[in-house]
Sequence to fold (570 residues):
Amino acid sequence: MPDKEKAAEYKAKGNTAFAAKDFEDAIQHFTAAIEHDNTDHVFFSNRSACYASLAEYDKALEDGSECVKLKPDWAKGYTRKGLAEYFLRKYDDAVDTYKAGLKLAPEDPTLKEGLQKATDAKYEVPGAGVTTAAAKNPKIKEYMKDPNLMQQVTMMMQLGQSNPAMQQQMLMQAMQQDPRILEVIMAMQGIDVSTMGPDGDIEGAARDAAEGRPPARAPPKKEEPKKEEPPDNRTPAQKEADDFKNQGNELYKKKQFKEALEMYDKAIEKEPNDLTYINNKSAVLIEMGPEHYDIALAALRDVIERRYEINTANPGGASFEKVAKVFNRIASIFEKRKDFEAAIGMYHKALTEDNNRQTRNALRELERAKEKHEKESYLDPAKAEEHKQKGNEFFKGNKYADAKTEYDEAIKRNPTDAKLYSNRAATLTKLMAHPDALKDIEECLRLDPTFVKAYSRKGATHFFMKEYHKALQAYDKGLAIEPDNEECKRGKEQVVMKISETNRGEVDEEQIRHAMADPEIQQIMHDPQIKMFLQTLQENPKEAQKAMMSDSKLMDAVNKLHAAGIIRTG
Fold:
């Protein structure tokens, strides 16, 4: 059961932390709020705003998507989701998201600007971005006068085109040194960081409270003219039927199924020409268990066959919307019986009657359930072992393509066996498919982080890819688990010899390309301390050596650059 009171307490703490720009602390509080009540869309919206402020856009998108899922008619959720998609360069998705939000709030300025920015980025409209932001925000215009700041912003934006993940890392690092960078980039999206605030209160109320100001009062709501109630054209019998239906609904919620059936039967007796009562009765039968499914199916199929007759006797009694709900109910029975194809067919029929969001979502969920069921039904560890043994035989016979086929099937049969991924990685290495081999090794180590052979294979794969700094790391991790492992020891010796050899010979362009594409190496190269060290190394090698020996962190970074071929000592 959700604890809304506790959740509200953590939400208030999160708002305060957000106002103080302590986004990491705010995330912890909003996460606690979600743990106490994961049904409140505002908590996910607030946490999404925090992640966006930290440039963690993948997580911001997850929370924004969950917010929209929980409250699809809340426009603010679409601004959170669209913002994250924009910075992840998913411009098509961002455009769709902003358009969906504008259907709910056509005049919302944030959504309108977000759509414009996403569209500009999608089609690379010249002049869009910081110039537009400066025209609307004097503070940004002032920032533009700082050439160093704008140089960093330009670098960040260019990095996003080639390596979005690296952009996020660098942005988080740069933001700690100069928060203006984030303000400028956010302004290019049409967002003013200074006015961003968590939801659930009046915009900016949490910030005002943190600064000691009383929260602003919401403007009084204008009284809307009272709408005239539509005339009630129901017959006395139909009114009685609806009363019985409402009583049945309440009993159904209390799981008093027998009593609920009696109420629905009375409703049907009063008005037999309305699909709603039969559909509700079928819902009760389904809840009562599989032995009642056939009774419910027969009743639902009967009203589908008589829909036109029913509509003639009672106009609207078998409307398109009501018929769609009957098809949905039939689909739910087939789904419970694991007859996914039949269920999917019923949902498609429902959509031809009434193409609504609820049915479309139900269909998507069913298709995912079908896929999951098929995968789980295919699991068979015994057969996986058979395919593994066949793969091993093919591997020994140098028939690597055939070995891979067998390992593929083994993994489908038992995807939790770490050794299967290790074996396939060895085969992929023989087939020179090193990036694919690395993916299998990573999955192997995720399943079994203590599997030393996987570290040995990882080191060998990095060695073949001339990523010697990563090869060393892999072998060291293996030796940390098993210090006397011969494969790791020999592999590490081979890597050290190769590093020494490459430092004495000509520059290996392929090795340098691999190194410079590595986010870890990129991050080291952009570190101000490393830049200063490299300059000192050229001007005063002895001083640089002294600095390195007195700083273990610096020494570790330099060793990685040395292993990667960036720093040469030969």
